[in-house]
Amino acid sequence: MAGQHVEFSASGSATQGYLAKPESGSGPAVIVIQEWWGLVDHIKAVADRFAGEGFFALAPDLYHGEAATRPDDAGRLMMALQIERAIHDLRGAVSYLKAQDGVSSSKVGAVGFCMGGQLALAAGCDNPDVGACVDFYGVHPNVTLDFSGLQAPVLGLFAEKDEFVNADAVAKLENDIRSADKSADFHTYPNVDHAFFNETRTEVYNEEAANDAWQKTLEFFRQNLV
Q1: Is there a catalytic annotation at residue 88?
Q2: Which one of 56, 95, 99, 184 has the minimum C-beta count within 10 Å?
Q3: Is 125 marked active-site?
Q4: Given CA atoms 27, 58, 161, 124 in this order, what sign does their dihedral have?
Q5: What is the pLDDT of residue 1?
Q6: What single DSSP character describes residue 117?
Q7: What homologous superfamily is domain 4-224 in, according to CATH?
């Protein structure tokens, strides 16, 4: 069941997004946060996959209509992202999902990839309505995380050969979360690269790791979004 483009309010301004709903019309809700490429077909497909598993899934367009196909352009868009506005957009996305008829969870999950992984954590630190966070190899140099406000458990999924989020960065992030007395469950997949979950990136996609990470993500959300 394909999703649809929607508009929702975020701090008084309109934001676009892609909403996929479960065929049953009832289920928990998650926000799906883009990589540095933007709200591209891969992210929409992830939202559709969540809907196929019984979730409401909303992917907000944090670039507000822009997207990239080349790394240089993606890097420019990522660095130009207004972090405060992005947090407002994510807050609006959570509120929009909670207001949907059929959403069964009292809180909303947040899952993000690359840049979006870091923003999923930021959404959890900012918003008590976020009930579970999944970080796929998250990185954004301008996102500062204050875990004192985090009420959601965190699932972290990382790659051993990641040049953007190396082992030291992963260890620091896990330690920072645990030092704030928050729940963290981290997994690093051996011999895979950053973006191993993105099947459109054939040079780095790893089917075995991607499938395992997907099952861990589904189980994590089903356990924590009630």
Answers
A1: no
A2: 99
A3: no
A4: negative
A5: 57
A6: H
A7: Alpha/Beta hydrolase fold, catalytic domain (3.40.50.1820)
Which residues, given as ranges, of the chain have pLDDT below 50?
A: none
Q: Is 53 helix (H, G, I), strand (E, B) or coil?
A: coil
Residue 89, H or E segment: helix 83-98
Q: Write phi, then psi, for 39 (nearest 5 degrees).
A: -85, 80
Distance CA 121, CA 26 (A): 26
Q: Is residue 135 flagged as an active site residue? A: no
Average pLDDT, the chain: 96
114 sits in the region (left: phi over 0; alpha: psi -120 to 50; else beta) called: left
Label residue 87 exposed, middle or buried (CB < 10 Å: 0-12, 13-18, 19+): buried
Cβ-based neighbours of 207, under 8 Å, separated by 6 or more? 199
Catalytic residue among 114, 125, 135, 193: 114
The predicted-structure confidence for 72-81, as pLDDT tens digits, reads as follows 999 999 999 9
